[in-house]
Structure formats: structure tokens, C-alpha cells
Amino acid sequence: MVFSAVSLPWAILIQRENADFFRFFFIQEHVLRYATRIHHHFEPFYYYLPIVLLGTLPWCAFLPEALRGVRRKTDVLFGSVEKRFLLTWLGLILLFFSLSSSKLASYIAPLFPPLALFLGHLFRRYEEESEGDENRKAVPLLSRMAVMVPALLCTALLLAPLFPHKYTLAWNDWWPWIAFPLLSLLLTLFLPDLIRKRTGQGRLPTFYLLFALFLASVALPAARYMAPYKSALPLSRAIQAHVPKGAAVYQYGISLYGIDFYTGMRTPIVDDVGELRYGSERLLPEERARYFLTSDSFFRLIQEKGEIYCATKGGDKLERLKKEVPGLQVLWHNDAYYLVRLKRS
Description:
Elements: H1 2-17, H2 21-35, H3 48-55, H4 63-69, H5 74-77, H6 80-98, H7 112-130, H8 141-159, H9 171-188, H10 191-199, H11 203-230, H12 233-242, E1 249-252, H13 257-263, E2 269-270, H14 277-280, H15 285-291, E3 292-293, H16 295-305, E4 307-313, H17 316-324, E5 329-333, E6 337-343
Helix pairs in contact: 4-7, 8-9, 9-11, 10-11, 12-13
């Protein structure tokens, strides 16, 4: 009732303004997305298994140790009703999305709350049974390796931007951003074991706190590295700085919704309608021709107007523009995105 009271008024208001809303949102975006390959996101049945495995890192690395530690007494961990409930919760979600004809990694997110409940309860029991047990103060070699593997994987990800590839960062620019995350990972290699050796417990809570610090601190370097190439904000700022007020900006071969959001402009799209196709086909012909162009109509428009500002990606798209419009002038770029001025030849 609470959910309906919050959501239904919005849906009703949208339906009043857009008569096709319910058909599009519920039939096309839910039923047809699940039952058909309409959005071209088809993946094999097992697609989510490696995603779940990676998504539970680093905790899945502790699973064998914890199961051995509680002596595999699953009947003690969970009662029969609890086990059926948990298995049903996990199994239905995994089966439902594995059967879907359209799969994206984010779809499986509802699986992680029951997984967190299972792992959290298991690790809590493991810590409780370890308390006061002198035999468990020593950390087995396999358990140490289980911690090292996730730490090494995370370290490799942090250092990857330093190695030659499409977007490389210099060490002097990068190390201040990753110093604290690397320190957190380094501490995970020995501090939890040290605390367990001295107290007989606390290994997993210590690891949890250190890894939580790592995840919190890695957000800034991730944003620092990815924002120029994954966000429309740098390109939008360049548009505001280089494009005269009132001039239109076209997106050639890309469709970044963030440009419209950050600049307050409505940018026409050239050759990349994507998921906007359904809505674009319901526009009046004049409006559709103005805001959703083909390459041919775009190049004709340049000849008519004499000058056009355009945002695009590097590589093939930029080279096509250079070939078709020799008067191209690059106003700004960050290697991933380009803002150009196209002049009639």
C-alpha cells in the first residue's frame, strides 16, 4: 500500500501526458525486454555466475575457511525453515534473471542481500566459535593466500592506469590518489592475522573494516580516472566555454544524455538514436528531422548553415568528420571526446 501510494500518482500523471506510457514502460521495457532480444542484450544462461563470484569478493575467499571453522554444521547455522527461505530467495532470483533473454550485470543486484545475509551469519558464527580456541590463532597458508588474491587483484586495478594503453596516467599524477587505497590493501595482508594471533579472534571484522576503508577511498581515484572518458561533464564544460550562447551543438555518432542535463541545451543526435528510437518515431516529422539526423542530412545541413558545432568521439567518428568536412577545427578534446567546429568547404 505504501509503495502504491508513493509510485502510482507519478505513473498516473505520466500516463495523462503520454498516452503510450504504460504500453512502453510495462510491456516493452519489462515483458518484451525479458522475453525477447529486442534490446540486443542476450547472454548465455550462466552469464551471472562469474558476476556473482566477483561481486562477493573478497568474502568468497574466506568461505572455505569459515565453513571448515564451523565444522560444516549447517543445521546449526540455519533452521530448516530458514534454509528453505534463504535457498528460495537466492534460487528464484538467480533462476529468474538467468532465464531472461536480456541480461545486464546490474540486473542481478537483488541477489546480493540474501548472499550478504548468508555470509554475514556464517562469518559471525565462525568468529564466535573461534573465540578462546588456541588452535585457531595460527592462520593456515591457504587462508593467507585467499586474502592475498583479492588484494593483488585490487592492486593491479589501481596500478593499471600507469601502463601503456589508450588512457595512460603519469605516476606523479596518479600516486597521490591511490596512496591511501594501497595502504588499506597492504594492511589487509597482515593486520587481521596479527590481531587473530594475539587475541584468537577479530580477523574477519578487522578485514571488513580495512576493506571498507579501501572501498570508500577508491571512489575518488576511480572518479579521477574514469570521469573524463565515462562522464559527459568535461565535454559539457567545454561546450559552455567554447560555444557561443544560443548556438546549437550536435552529437555525431554519440548520444550523451548528460550534455543536455549539464548545459540545459537540447542537442540533436546524428546516427546514434539508440534507446531513443521508440520516442523519436512518435515525434512529428518536422521535429524528428530536426533532432534525429542521418549522416547525409547532417552533412547537407553543414552546407546550408555554413558552420556547425559538434561533439563526437575520437577514432572512426572523428576521422569520418575530417574526411567529409575538411574545414573541421578542434576546439577541445580529452582524447576520448572532441568538440569541433565544422565549416562549409
